Amino acid sequence: MKTKFILSLDCEGKWGIADKLTRDHEKTLGKDRLEKAYDDILGLLDTNNIAATFAFVGLFQKSLSELENSDWDLLLDRFPYVKNAYEDIFNGSQDGWSGNWAVRNVRNAAIDHEIGCHGGTHTPFDQMDGAQAKLDLTFCPDIDGQTFIYPRGGLGHIDVLQQAGIAGYRLVRPGTKVSRILDEINLFHGPELCPPPASPVEIPAGYFINWKSGIRNLIPVIASRMRIRSIFEKAGTNGGVIHFWSHPENIASAPATLEIMEIVLSEAARAREKGLLQIVTQKEYCDYQLAATSTAS
Question: Does the structural domain 3-296 have CATH classification 3.20.20.370?
């Protein structure tokens, strides 16, 4: 079985940093920069003929008027995380909270990308009780059959995902912030093993695409290229999964990140042309796993 490649993207606008909003985010995560980032990513995917998983925060999928007409009494009461969003939408710039245009652009792309779920409000699931988690998912449209990416990697309430019909969810790589940064120059990584059968399906955690911001900006592009190439050189007929992930917002805030994503996609396309790799979305990976489990039983 060929190695499978997945690119997943956590799509969140300002919702990803709603609890720690700063003035700098007004510039780096405004609509103009977000639109360019999403357009650049879709262009790269089109050039390389690669389908990706775009997992959107539910509230980010709404238009501004829909956001304004949301049940804010309920949101503020049950999700303290959204307090700054409320203030900015009604008393601030309003910019960066509405991404209905991004969903539309992904759906209208030349390639059939997957629309997944990144939570309803971006409140981390490990900071909610079961009732909150269920309520959070009600802000995610058409969630049945989608795959899920936990906000901030806060795994929890898998039973709630199962009840909602979630097909699978991306696992989280263990470790500290320092160890994860060191991982980004680790030349010994390769395809990850497929986890045992589960419902929802567990999707290998994958590798973070170096965000050219802060301390990560000190990692030379050549080091990222060597690491990425080393991972893809281990692709083959022994199976496994090469999964890379990022945020379009990382490219909006640090455009040099796009170069690293371009390296990932070009290496994936090259491995595919050699017959070593099959490119799938998270949902397609789940379908393969479920089919394999059904056949084995």
Answer: yes
